[in-house]
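Run log, item B.
One chain of 183 residues. Sequence copied directly from the ordering sheet:
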Amino acid sequence: MTAKAQAMVVAVFGAAFLPENDPAYQTARELGERIARQGWVVATGGYGGTMEAVSRGAAEAGGHTIGVTCETLSRAGRRTNAWVREEIRCETIRERLFTLARRADAAIALDGGIGTLAEITFCWVQIQTGELSPRPLIVIGPVWKETLDAFFRSADGYVKDLDRAIIRFAVSPLEAVRMIQAR
């Protein structure tokens, strides 16, 4: 680290395909703006949907955005969104996920699918095992609240309370940012 302190990096995970007129797009855009207004850096997977929306919100608020992309998805036709200011190119999805998790001082997941679930669980197990130092891991939205509540009920006895507490639930971008500030 240089003499000037580096800004906190907040990784944001979410749906890869999300139209601009979807309310979830506006939620992601608001989250990006709130992160940038704190002076924090937004890091995403760099493509469309939630990644575009959060990057757009941050960039429009004057914040810095990082997109961690990969050859695997680029070969599949995905394009880096226009709001990414710094691209980190990885070879594989695995390397991309590892890079995002390692660079993040905090992580927030909005509603999404399989990729978002993988990102949440990867960060969660990395923190749980000590591979990553403790850091905020926050989920926003009904998909993760319902999914994780069902998991906790079904896995009762397999997941310790301490490990459950790694993941925090927020109802809005404002609450998620406040949770990070409190840490």
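Observations after the first pass:
- The chain has one domain: 9-182.
- The first helix runs from residue 23 to 37.
Flagged for discussion on Thursday.
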